[in-house]
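hiii, so i know i said id send this last week but things got crazy w the move. better late than never?? heres the sequnce for the chain we talked about at the cafe, plus the structure i predicted for it. fair warning i was half asleep when i ran it
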Amino acid sequence: MGKHGSTQQALLQALASCGGRPLSGQALAQQLGVSRSAVWKAARELQNRGYPIQGASGQGYWLAEGSDPLTEQAVRAALPPGCPIGLVEVHEEIDSTNMAAKRLGLAGAPTGTLVVAGRQKQGRGRLGRTFVSPPGGVYLSLLLRPDVAAPDALTATGAAAVAVCRAVEELTRCSLAIKWVNDLFYGGKKVCGILTEAVTDFESGRIDFLVVGIGINLTTTPEQFGPELASIAGSLFPNGPSPCGRAALAASIAAHLLALGFGRDYLPEYRQRSLVVGHWLTVTGDGDPYIAKALAIDDEGRLVIQLPTGGQKALRFGEVSTRPSPGSL
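okay and structure toks below
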């Protein structure tokens, strides 16, 4: 984070900590270790980004009632007692939380390191696609150092999907469905994507560290997605407000993912929430596209499909989209 970004984050944290009470420019300058002009500039830039920071001559600055500050302090305050989160980095805007977490991992950051952002400029999805990351979303990446072989780490994406579902349902009462392998849907539209990336020790074949990236649309409006995505992308509360803040949601997702770990405990709920089992699909990313029927999620998290020829296959990777059954075409 650059100097200006760090001043903005520190200003947000200071204002969020005072419960709506005004803080003078001089007091903030002393607390943040910057000039009063730097405080003024940071406040103006945050206002331009949509933050409800209010100010008045002779009173100072304060956050308007109902604001949703995204700060390290707010994230930590929302974590359950004993949650093994270590380093927490919070940015209002960043290139990519996954990229930041990988940089931290390569520098030796411990397991449980969490990076959270309110917006990404270079968000990425699977297969190198762009992941549109407008304001109103929650973008987070959790760095993990599991003592497992690379194939066993494949459970992380499924566990992350269940962690998001649990956090969202607890905080908002919204029930999400999972489209194998990494997309979550609400109201017929995609509201969350997951990207898991691993750095592997080639000599041992074991994971050095893993980064699980999650982007969820909380209050993003259709206009913010643009015309190309508005028909397929949605958010939990497009008309706002959300019953939970971004910091609370990020903290809850991370806590649930850490609690699930790398076992198979996530599978029963993953299967229960599946959007694809029992449906005919178009399968891509596994050679030429073809039609198959989804039969089950097996104990390794693979999608078991029935081929038109009658045989079966277990997909470890690939992309699927639901379609009408062949008899209805």
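btw The mean pLDDT is 87. thought thatd interest u
miss u guys!!
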